[in-house]
Amino acid sequence: MNSMKQFLKIVFGLVLLMGVTSCFDKNQPNYQYMPNMYEPVGYETYQQVENGLFPMGTEAMLPAENTISRGWMPYEFDNTLEGKELARMQKSPLDSLESEANLAMGKELYDVYCAICHGPKGKGQGTLVKREKILGVPSYDDAARNITVGSTYHTMYYGLNSMGSYAAQMSNEKELWQVAEYVMKLKEDLTK
Q: Residue 163 contacts by C-beta under 8 Å, 6 or more apart in sequence?
């Protein structure tokens, strides 16, 4: 009798378990709360999506015409030899009363972006040159270079030979001028 009750409990448990699991289908789950969280809609990068929000799709768009980035003014000299010669005569627009602060900031930026190739003193013997990763970085006191603050700014803005542009690394024009002034200080220290 006792074993019969136990047997009926087991049978009843199995029937109940089969009843619960028979409604469950692994291929089609039951109700889902917020189904987009479980089944995301995949978009290809820059794919045209007709959603009304972006009439041209989600492609990368050009900035509006005649606009410039905040903190930047268009540079008046072209990326040509003639433009560099015109820039050579340009003077720094930074305030001469703040020359110590400008040189201090220029040194900080120079140490981060320039010293790795040009060296901490501007002799062209930075870490990458010493390890022979790049070659041909001349010293600032090289007479053939005839660098000025304007030509240094031009070179940092556009790049020259294997040196790329550093305009994007600086937050604004002032930082470019600060580094250019610091390079001229290094040149002056080398020629003493």
A: 117, 155
